[in-house]
Specification:
Number of helices: 4
Structural class: alpha+beta
Order of helices and strands: HEEEEHHH
Number of domains: 2
Helix content: 55-70%
Length: about 130
Amino acid sequence: MSNKTNEDGIKAIAEALRAGGTLLSTACPVCDSPLIRINDKIYCKVCNKEVMIYKDESELPKEVQRALKKNAASTGDSNESKVQQTINKKIEALRKRLEEADDPDEIIKLSDAIEKLHATLTKIRDE
């Protein structure tokens, strides 16, 4: 941020504080300037935009959650995607063991494990 922009930002923050705004300890995710609460809304006076703060993804609007999941699935970078990959690998490993198994107790045990992993995978996909 240039000195001129920095000065303008400081002036905008000061004006918001004089008008009754509250300085927050949270910084703007874009420019890293302190955020201001005004009438139950949060603003970055440097970016001159309203900022929404959420504790976790479950608080986001449903359409934003869907967009994030879709993006994560397409990039393969999400934790869920990695969990799904791990579960799929475990299912495949258990399937191979099941293919080789002759003992009825082991067959039942492996089948139960595969079923539980599959149920978990289905739950993750349906969320």
